[in-house]
Amino acid sequence: MDVSGELKRLAALLKAAGHDEATAEAESLLAHALGCRRLAVYLHGERKLSPAQLRLLQAQALRLHSDEPLQYVLGEVEFCGRVFACDARALIPRPETELLVEAALGFSTVWEKSQPKVSDLGTGTGCIAITLALAHPRAQLSAVDISPAALELARENATRQGVADRIAFIQADLLAPFAAGALDLIVSNPPYVPAAEWGALPRPIRDFEPRNALEAGADGLDVLRRLIAQAADRLAPGGALALEIGEDQGRRVAELMQAAGFVNVVVKKDFAGWDRVVTGESLCEAWVRGYK
């Protein structure tokens, strides 16, 4: 079987299973097998596939047929222009989370410090902490997750990206290990899906991604409430907090941050125009003097 024929076969199989992106998924499987970019698959149309490659492609197609996410099937995902290992130990990084990283990198007063202390809560694959470490080599970074399996994956990715020795990997519940005023920046993509919405999620998410990384109580704010309250204490004066949130949670999360004492609270929209990131700053001494 050549690449062109296998592409048609895989696409037909996935289309019959009801996959809307059947051709794109088939292209991705073949690109992974060939070690090329997805659209470059068409440059290899007459290339013969080995029996081992065909067996792997068949197995991967069957996993997709059962609605397992493509990223888990391939074992990797692209985030901020880099490839990260990705499997069921952690939530799949999504393009919207790149907006969270962008927001975190926008706090120039934090990054101007000689050794800014930054923590990524609920690190999962480690993609946020690793991206920040690569952008700012002087930063003291910690990657926190309650799941030891997720932390193992994050360490693997940090090793793959050459920054494992610059990130502290901590198994903990949110900010429990940190003292008051210990951090300059806290970044988190926490669980924020309301329990009542769980059953309506697409099957690839509901049946394959870790539930404890997604669901957060009746209104989806259980973790965010605790995180914001803790962050107000753990941030140094003039520190910053950047959070990913659900598409209709902007107003409520902003109110929680303001009630906790954060200033300059801003809700940022994603590519589709939904609430996606909320940022705020802790009071610095100059601001306190200004309010008196």
A few lines on this structure:
The chain is an alpha/beta fold and 292 residues long.
Protein topology:
Blueprint: H1 3-16, H2 22-34, H3 51-65, H4 70-74, E1 76-79, E2 82-85, H5 95-105, H6 108-111, E3 117-121, H7 127-135, E4 140-145, H8 148-161, E5 167-171, E6 183-188, H9 203-208, H10 222-234, E7 235-244, H11 250-259, E8 263-269, E9 275-281, H12 285-291
Parallel strand pairs: 3-4, 3-6, 4-5, 6-7
Antiparallel strand pairs: 1-2, 7-9, 8-9
Helix pairs in contact: 1-2, 1-3, 2-3, 5-7
Describe the structure.
- This protein has two domains: 64 residues; 203 residues, Vaccinia Virus protein VP39 (Rossmann fold), CATH 3.40.50.
- The strands form two sheets. The protein has a seven-stranded mixed sheet with strand order 5-4-3-6-7-9-8, sandwiched between helices. A two-stranded antiparallel sheet has the order 1-2.
- The protein is of the alpha/beta class and 292 residues long.
- The chain is built from twelve helices and nine strands.
- The C terminus is likely disordered.
Cα-to-Cα separation, first versus last residue: 76 Å
Q: What's the number of structural domains?
A: 2
User: What's the CATH H-level superfamily name of the largest domain?
Assistant: Vaccinia Virus protein VP39
Sequence of strands across the biggest β-sheet: 5-4-3-6-7-9-8
What is the H-and-E element order?
Answer: HHHHEEHHEHEHEEHHEHEEH
